[in-house]
């Protein structure tokens, strides 16, 4: 599947695995992260209040500073409009809490538009709905699962230190600090939407299986 790589403003050590057909978008000051890594983006979008200038010799889309979308959301919309359904977001975790929450909402927006998205930092994060996330054998580390954007979510956690089948509530942190135990692990959400956060050695993406919508 083609991937849309979106690089935002927070300083990040970029390790960008780009394949043919992928799209790389710099969201405003994310351009500086890419420049320092020696990576030329396909497109730069934003109001350029953070970067302070519009890059010359670079395809750019300039938006007014007074707008509803964050620069990262503008980049997400651009990728969706160009047909991409898999998104990797870099430089979008940490710093201001409001922007971190906004970027988590971007993940939810991606899911609502038929895609999958991941925030990459010291941890990895994704949002899922009516789906199963399959993690390979051999993993260690912590993962947490929360109801996201809903009051309750129905989940099943398998192949982990604390197996569970039932509901997670948005007002009680039952799903925090589970553990991978080197077995193949599965996180299934059958109702509601979940936020999954995991910390493993290296970058590990689950295989995502969507349930058919009736």
Q: Any idea what the shape is?
A: globular
CATH C-level name of the largest domain = Alpha Beta
Helix content: 10-25%
Question: How many separate structural domains?
Answer: 2
CATH hierarchy: architecture of the largest domain: 3-Layer(aba) Sandwich
Q: Separation of termini?
A: 24 Å
The name of the CATH superfamily of the largest domain reads: Thiamin pyrophosphokinase, catalytic domain
**Rg of Cα set:** 18 Å
Number of strands: 13
Give start-end ranges of low-pLDDT stretches.
Answer: none
Report the sheet-strand fraction: 35-45%
Mean pLDDT equals: 94
Note the main sheet.
Answer: 13 strands, mixed
Q: How many helical elements? A: 3
Spell the H/E element sequence: EEHEEHEHEEEEEEEE
What this model shows, in words?
This protein has helices at residues 30-36, 71-81, 97-112; strands spanning 3-7, 23-27, 43-46, 60-62, 86-90, 116-120, 124-135, 140-147, 152-158, 164-169, 178-181, 185-199, 207-210. The model has no long low-confidence stretch (mean pLDDT 94). The chain is built from three helices and 13 strands, in the order E-E-H-E-E-H-E-H-E-E-E-E-E-E-E-E. The protein is globular and about 55 Å long. By secondary structure, the protein is of the alpha/beta class. The chain has two domains: 3-122, Rossmann fold (3-Layer(aba) Sandwich), CATH 3.40.50.10240; 127-210. Strands 1, 2, 3, 4, 5, 6, 7, 8, 9, 10, 11, 12 and 13 form a 13-stranded mixed β-sheet that branches.
